UniProtKB/TrEMBL annotation:
It comes from the Bacteria. It comes from Stutzerimonas stutzeri. Residues 86-179 form the FMN-binding domain. Pfam families: Fer4_5, FMN_bind. One of its GO terms (biological process) is positive regulation of DNA-templated transcription. This is Regulatory protein NosR. It is found in: Cell membrane. InterPro entries: 4Fe4S_Fe-S-bd, FMN-bd, NosR, NosR_regulator. Residues 1-33 form the signal peptide. Keywords: Cell membrane, Membrane, Signal, Transmembrane, Transmembrane helix. SMART domains: FMN_bind. NCBIfam families: TransRegNosR.
């Protein structure tokens, strides 16, 4: 029997796996088809003349759009270029279309996992936001909101999804820049290129060849025949003209390069007269580069004689290729630097003004080596000689205050830019939390003045609803808890949580107050939906609307509902975070707070239903349904202090606080359940009230009786009667 059970179990397990696999394929294939269909529609919309679309090519999987042989544009998905996590912790994938000039034609969102877009803000608002990228070049700087950089392109954020659209901006512009550079559509450094430096003509000191090579003013590239053979391995030219083992170490070329404009270099190398003539012949913005070589290989070759272009040497700066023609070439024969070795060929090449050459930025001299593989075919390989001008020979322009601010802003992490943009809101939130901290630490003093504390609390709850909730959208959610838990076990990154400063600050404060006071500080003071319920119920009581409470035995058992909901949501999140985010709609927070009731009618009806029940029984949702409250109650067990004071008479015989507690967090035996307490401090106001708290009232009565009772001095004197 056991083998049969084992086989049956194996078949059942295999069948179950097959069903799951088929279900996953059934879910994934339609999703992939939808993405592909969206891609094709956007391409047809923005490139209607495209006759062919290539297969994805290169590291970034770019597709080329053509009309015949003419290239119309390029298409790619950002997920293949950059993997920046959004607020959900997962990347957003967009298709970006570029034209041949490196300008964005379209940026369309294909896939996301953002909670606010899944069950809150319509995706169309994000599509409308993405439409602003049309016409922006990939090397421009785009900022969401305001910027101190006058050259930056600014786009307004989407209310309620600021973090998401800031991440989208980072993804679109970074991916577009990377792809455009790889395709040669834009200059790699154009967007961050510094202002060009100038050569200091007043700096000169005598220097020998060894001194100039020692300080980096003259740079060297030495190649042996063996190194050249190694470079051609794996190509069609492998094995052609290879050196023998005995000659592999011989010099193929010994190449030197330098910038002649600085007087210390040019005058010591060329002599005063030749240097002066060279400088006088240069136009403003032109630069002279000396190239000197010896060995078997000629860096000049003979191509410049036939076609007027030097095909063996070129410069590269900022990704731009600078090639030379015969008109840019000056023969160099007389050199005067002390200790200079002999060279078989020397040349001066002129970098013309239109190139916008920067003497203060690095550049490379590229040596192209060609091997013939056929009558007219050959294979090229290149070697680079890097050059950086010594700082003593150049002067860099000082950036303006505006430029410094723009550079600082551009180099800041995205989350830090968000904090700068929301500095006012952050200041108000921090001030409000400091006030709440003072109230909590001095609660005994405040509760001695119940009238003042009642109005202070009402004002704070109004601030929580209007500013924290409806203005700053600072409503915490169980989705935040699930995201944090998953991040701890997967790929925790602080910047993910720092991207929303208000949520981060409130979460940090909530975590600290849980250790000191329990969950009640957040639920009773900082939850916008909870504050809205409390204010509505307060108004209902003022209007004498009847209030109803459940028997404590029933009420106590209903507490378990929110913990069950939390466990279900957590279990769903283990399978699919997206499904968990949708199931978290059991929270009415997005409807009532984030979107201010601007949603489909069934979401609004659910939130209104909870608020209507709250008119008759305070905070029913918070007490029995809220999974966020359940999540905060679990670590409340770890709180370090018990700040709420009780007397031995509380519960037996006094039941006043238990009856007055409007969320029934006080047990009949008198103890306060910190897991359910919302820290309204009503019980503490009663605790300090001499005219309300029964033990204090009895104490006052005893004092009054003691005052009325006669003392020994007040005894009636004995009168002695004397008979006559």
């Amino acid at each position: 029997m056991k083998p049969q059970l084992s086989v049956a179990g194996a078949l059942f397990s295999w069948g179950k796996s097959l069903v799951i696999l088929l279900a996953m394929m059934a879910a994934v294939l339609p999703a992939q088809a939808t993405v592909y269909e969206a891609e094709q529609q956007r391409i047809e919309q923005f490139f209607p003349d495209a006759q062919s679309i290539s297969e994805p090519e290169g590291d970034y999987q770019v597709r080329t759009l053509r009309k015949g042989d003419e290239v119309l544009g390029y298409a790619f998905q950002t997920i293949n270029v950059t993997n920046i996590p959004a607020y959900s912790g997962k990347p957003i994938n967009l298709q970006v279309l570029l034209d041949p000039q490196g300008a964005i034609k379209d940026a369309y969102m294909l896939e996301h996992h953002e909670p606010i877009l899944l069950i809150g803000i319509p995706e169309q608002k994000v599509h409308d936001f993405n439409a602003h990228y049309a016409g922006i070049k990939a090397d421009q700087r785009v900022v969401v909101g305001r910027s101190s950089d006058s050259n930056a392109v600014t786009i307004d954020a989407v209310t309620g999804a600021t973090v998401t659209v800031m991440v989208i901006n980072e993804i679109v512009m970074r991916a577009a820049h990377e792809v455009a550079v790889s395709l040669g559509l834009i200059d790699a450094g154009a967007s961050a290129r510094p202002k060009p430096a100038s050569v200091r003509e007043d700096v000169y000191q005598p220097a020998s060849w060894s001194e100039l090579t020692g300080n980096g003013a003259i740079r060297r590239l030495h190649l042996t025949r063996g190194q050249i053979d190694e470079a051609f391995k794996g190509t069609e030219a492998e094995g052609i003209d290879e050196a023998s083992p005995e000659t592999a170490g011989e010099t193929f070329i010994d190449l030197y390069a330098t910038h002649l404009n600085p007087p210390t270099i040019g005058r010591n190398l060329l002599g005063d007269s030749q240097y002066r003539d060279l400088m006088q012949g240069l136009k403003p913005g032109e630069h002279a580069i000396a190239v000197l070589g010896s060995g078997d290989y000629s860096f000049k070759g003979s191509g410049y004689v036939r076609g007027g272009i030097f095909d063996r040497v070129q410069l590269r700066q900022f990704g731009n290729i600078i090639s030379f023609r015969d008109l840019d070439f000056i023969r160099l024969s007389d050199v005067y630097a002390e200790g200079m070795p002999g060279f078989s060929e020397m040349a001066i090449f002129i970098v013309r003004e239109h190139v916008a050459f920067d003497p203060g930025s690095p550049w490379n001299l590229e040596l192209l080596v060609r091997r013939q593989t056929g009558p007219i075919s050959g294979v090229f390989t290149s070697f680079e000689l890097p050059y950086q001008m010594p700082e003593a020979y150049i002067e860099r322009p000082q950036p303006t205050a505006e430029e410094l601010a723009a550079i600082e802003e551009a180099n800041r992490p995205m989350w830090l830019n968000i904090w700068y943009q929301k500095s006012f809101q952050i200041g108000v939130i921090v001030a409000a939390l400091l006030l709440l901290t003072v109230i909590l630490f001095l609660q005994d003093k405040f509760t001695e003045k119940p009238h003042f504390l009642h109005w202070l609390r009402r004002g704070y709850l109004l601030f929580t609803v209007l500013f924290i909730g409806w203005y700053m959208l600072g409503q915490l959610s169980v989705v935040n808890v699930l995201t944090f838990v998953h991040a701890l076990f997967q790929d925790f990154r602080w910047e993910l949580f720092l991207s929303d400063p208000v949520i981060f600050i409130i979460w940090t404060f909530t975590a600290a107050t849980i250790l000191l006071w329990g969950r009640g500080v957040f639920c009773g003071w900082l939850c916008p939906f909870g504050a809205l319920q409390e204010l509505i119920n307060e108004a209902a009581r003022k209007l004498k609307i009847p209030q109803y409470e459940l028997p404590f035995a029933v009420h106590e058992r209903l507490w378990a509902i929110k913990y069950i909901i939390l466990l279900v949501l957590f279990g769903i999140s283990l399978e699919s975070m997206m499904l968990a985010e949708k199931a978290a709609e059991v929270e009415p927070f997005k409807t009532a707070v984030m979107l201010k009731f601007d949603r489909q009618w069934w979401f609004v009806a659910y939130a209104v239903f909870l608020l209507v029940i709250n008119v008759f029984t305070r905070k029913v949702y918070c007490r029995y349904v809220c999974p966020l409250g359940a999540a905060l109650a679990i670590p409340t067990k770890l709180r370090l202090f018990d700040w709420l004071k009780r007397r031995k008479e509380c519960g037996t015989p006094c039941q006043l606080c238990a009856k007055e507690c409007e969320i029934q967090a006080i047990h009949p035996d008198g103890h306060i359940n910190a897991n359910e307490c919302h820290y309204c401090l009503d019980c503490q106001m009663t605790y300090h009230n001499d005219h309300k708290c029964p033990p204090l009232v009895n104490k006052q009565k005893r004092k009054k009786r003691d005052k009325k009772a006669p003392t020994s001095a007040d005894l009636i004197p004995v009168v002695q009667v004397v008979e006559p």
